[in-house]
Hints:
This protein is of the alpha+beta class and 159 residues long. It is 29% helix and 31% strand. The chain has one domain: Gcn5-related N-acetyltransferase (GNAT) (Aminopeptidase, 3-Layer(aba) Sandwich).
Amino acid sequence: MNFIAFDRNSFGPSLKEDKLLKSLIQVDHDDFPQPWRVEDWHQLTFEHYGLYGSFESGDQEKSLQGFALFRELPGDETVHLLKVVTRSSARQQGLARKLLEFAFASQHERSFRSLYLEVEHDNQAALRFYESLGFKRYRELRHFYGPGRHGISMGGGIA
Ligand SMILES: CC(C)(COP(=O)(O)OP(=O)(O)OC[C@H]1O[C@@H](n2cnc3c(N)ncnc32)[C@H](O)[C@@H]1OP(=O)(O)O)[C@@H](O)C(=O)NCCC(=O)NCCS
């Protein structure tokens, strides 16, 4: 498996036309519980975002298996995990764990030291996943994802 940190230069001049971005949008749409709208992806500036992907082979557009998206604000030692997803066909093989370890190593080099995130209260796979990485539950976020859809905030150190 290959892991890559993307920046704006990873994509062509037109995000709308870019095949790699299309494959990220496809994975988000197919396999993430609350996908972004296509327009939101097209407006991604990449400034102070960290985007990391996992691939089966060198052909990035065809073999994207998952990605993680963070806010990484300079001067703040804490990153915000916005999304992490593994294609449903590739789950429970250690892929998201390795992808986040790859991201954390890159973030640690740039002096980021901790992370926070939100997760829907009944997303058992994600809750178990974050706990397996050592993150703690902080508090319930009432109706964070919509009426009756509560969130849980979590976080901890990144090594
Ligand atoms: C959460 C998610 C990213 C995990 O991806 P993954 O590649 O399957 O995770 P890994 O294989 O790296 O799992 C690492 C550890 O997480 C835990 N875990 C992962 N999936 C689990 C599941 N379905 N049930 C219980 N524990 C699970 C296990 O402890 C696992 O370690 P183990 O394999 O040694 O038992 C994946 O289920 C996913 O994409 N879900 C949909 C998107 C989503 O909900 N993202 C989080 C939103 S906040």
